[in-house]
Amino acid sequence: MIRRARPDDPVMTVKAGIFTAHAIILKKLYVQIPDNISFGDATAMSTVFSTVAESMFNIAHLEKGQVSKRLTHRFACGRWEVQREAWVSAIQLAKKVRAVMYATVGKGEKAKFLMDRFNIPRNRTYQHHDTMFVEGTTREINGRGVDVALTSLPGELLQATWRCVAEFGIMVEIS
C-alpha cells in the first residue's frame, strides 16, 4: 500500500536544486526508499537515473512522441548490478517516449530478461561479444542506422557501435 510520506520518512527524488535535508515536493516527484535499500544505494540509483535522462534527452535529444526514433543501447556491460540500473533506466525512459529499442547483451539470460520484463523482441537483441550486432541492427532497420546509440562498450565494440549510427545520429558513451 502506498501512502503519503510523513516528515522524517526516507524518500528519494530526481529534481534540480534538491540537495537538501528538507523539501516540499509534489507526491508524483518522489518515491519512498524501501527498508531494504540503503541511503547510499538510493543515492546511486537517483544519480544513475539522472545521468541516463541527461544523456538521452538533453544530449541525444530523444523526444516524446518520436515513434520513429531508434535507440540502440548496450545492456549489462561491466558490473552487472551497477550497469543494470543504468540500462533499466534507459529502457524505461525510451519506452516512455515510445522509442524503438535495439539492445546488446552479454548472455542469453539477459536477452530473456529484456524480453520478459520489457517486451523487447528477440530480433532486436544481439550479443555484444563481437561486432555481429552491427549487421543484425542495420539489417533490422534496412541499413538506415539508429538515431540514438547509448553505450558503455569499450574499444573495438565502441567503434562498431558507430557503424550502427545513422547519418546525423548521435552516440552517447556513458562509462
UniProtKB/TrEMBL annotation:
Domain of life: Eukaryota
InterPro entries: ER, NAD(P)-bd_dom_sf, Polyketide_Synthase
SMART domains for this protein: PKS_ER
Keywords: Transferase
Gene Ontology MF terms in the entry: oxidoreductase activity; transferase activity
Keyword Transferase: yes
Record CDD domains: enoyl_red (cd05195)
Keyword Transferase on entry: yes
Gene3D superfamilies per UniProt: Medium-chain alcohol dehydrogenases, catalytic domain
Domain named Enoyl reductase (ER): residues: 2-175
Name this polypeptide is given: Enoyl reductase (ER) domain-containing protein
UniProt organism field: Trichoderma harzianum
